[in-house]
Amino acid sequence: MSISKAGFETVTSSFVPNSTSTVELKPSYNIPVVLVIASIPLLLVQPLVGGVIGLFGLFLMFQAVTLRLQFTATDLDIYRGEKLIRRFPYQEWQNWRIFWDGIPILFYFKEIKSIHFLPILFDPNTLKACLEQRCPRI
């Protein structure tokens, strides 16, 4: 909630996470489903290309089911099941970006020592809200 200039309280419906709470992103199956569906007609025209795209879509589906992203107060943590497989401290981040606003497909972030590109396999709105709050862009 916020107070407007006129003194009235306004309520916003968008989710804004607390920077001290841990937020786990819900999976999004949009990209894997689109790739698998697009591969079906391609299998008739170009079986090899259709098969590769279909397998890639199934691979991304498996990743969306098994991986979990958690935004903590200090890090972006990636889990496979209950096992932490990677931790990215915000203090090492230099920049981030979500490609393409209308249809978010790719998440990019740069750390001091490396660059990462991840397909958007998680709720893009919550991802963007967490990033804007915890790692403002430079």
Question: Can you walk through the features of this model?
Answer:
The structure is a single chain. Helix content is 34%, strand content 30%. It is elongated, with a radius of gyration of 18 Å. Strands 3-4-5-6 form a 4-stranded antiparallel β-sheet. It has a 3-stranded antiparallel β-sheet with strand order 7-8-9, with no helix packed on it. Strands 1-2 form a two-stranded antiparallel ribbon. Mean pLDDT is 85; it is low at 1-17. It is built from 3 helices and 9 strands. The protein has 138 residues and is an alpha+beta fold. Helix 1 (30-45) packs antiparallel against helix 2 (47-66). It has helices at residues 30-45, 47-66, 124-134; strands at 2-3, 9-10, 23-24, 67-71, 75-80, 83-89, 93-99, 106-111, 115-119.
Share of β-strand residues: 25-35%
Largest sheet: 4 strands, antiparallel
The end-to-end distance, rounded to whole angstroms, is 27 Å
Helix content: 25-40%
Shape: elongated
What order do the strands of the largest sheet run in, or round the barrel if closed? Answer: 3-4-5-6
Helix-strand string: EEEHHEEEEEEH
Low-confidence stretches: 1-17
- Overall average pLDDT: 85
Q: Compute the number of helices.
A: 3
According to DSSP, the number of beta strands is 9
Cα radius of gyration in angstroms: 18 Å
Counting helices, strands and paired strands, the structural category is alpha+beta
In short:
With 138 residues, this protein is of the alpha+beta class.
Helix and strand layout, with pairings?
Blueprint: E1 2-3, E2 9-10, E3 23-24, H1 30-45, H2 47-66, E4 67-71, E5 75-80, E6 83-89, E7 93-99, E8 106-111, E9 115-119, H3 124-134
Antiparallel strand pairs: 1-2, 3-4, 4-5, 5-6, 7-8, 8-9
